[in-house]
Amino acid sequence: MLFAVYSIFVIMMLLSIKKKSYIIFKTLNSLAFIVVAVYCGMTSDRVSMMVGLLPGLIGCLAGDFPEADYHAKSRSQSHTYLDFMLATQYKKSFLYGLTCFLIANLCFVIYFINFQSLSIIEFILPVASIMIVIALSYLPRMDYGVYDKAILAYAFMITLAMVRSVVVYLTLSTPMFLFSMVGFILYFLSDIILLFEKFFECRFKDILTVFNLITYFYGLFFIALSLVK
């Protein structure tokens, strides 16, 4: 039931991508995964786990809004309306959103530490992700612009959060952590897609946007759903 209702919200958002109502539907989807987490946490008597997970989810909600707001405004303004103003606004919005997600992922890492402590081996993939992102910057049509250092920091943190979810599931092997792992893998994939959508010049931006939104919002849904019993 939760999946069906959530899917309706996702479909409505996808249908509004090129409309002014996009910001409304994207915000509703972001609020929806918060509601799912609260509902699952309260009804399954996992309130303490819910409290531990919510800071990360709220950080994602905070990071979603500025990007959606910019997207809506850029669609609604004419091309003669001070393009440099939109570019400046985008830079501020992107950095704000990236910071929110960086903090959110740190909160997720801390959340998993409550179940199992970090090991040095878990830092191998995050460090490798930094090297991969640097290597991708040499692609002919890839341009990180002024965001290169911020992207490297984010790549490290999102990879660490994803690795944490996998390690905790492999160690504890419960349905709760299975949902969580699936969610973080989807969330991680959404950021790989987002990297190409934002910084790689190609003709398939609209398709990348759709796949980014699907993997991101279903990723956060499964993370929130992990609290169900």
Number of helices: 8
Oligomer status: single chain
Kindly provide the radius of gyration, computed on alpha-carbon positions and rounded to a whole number of angstroms: 18 Å
Number of domains: 1
Order of helices and strands: HHHHHHHH
User: Based on helices, strands and strand pairing, what is the structural class?
Assistant: mainly alpha
Distance between the termini: 15 Å
How many strands, what sense, and barrel or not for the largest sheet? Answer: none
Please tell me what the overall shape is: globular
The total strand number stands at: 0
Helix share, percent: over 70%
Mean pLDDT: 90
Strand content: under 5%
**In terms of per-residue confidence, which ranges show pLDDT below 50 for 5 or more consecutive residues?**
74-86
Write the layout of secondary structure elements.
Blueprint: H1 2-15, H2 22-43, H3 47-76, H4 83-113, H5 124-136, H6 148-172, H7 175-199, H8 205-225
Helix pairs in contact: 1-2, 1-8, 2-3, 2-8, 3-4, 4-6, 5-6, 6-7, 7-8
Structure description:
This protein has helices at residues 2-15, 22-43, 47-76, 83-113, 124-136, 148-172, 175-199, 205-225. It is mostly helical. The protein has one domain. α1 (2-15) packs antiparallel against α2, α4 (83-113) packs parallel to α6 and α7 (175-199) packs antiparallel against α8.
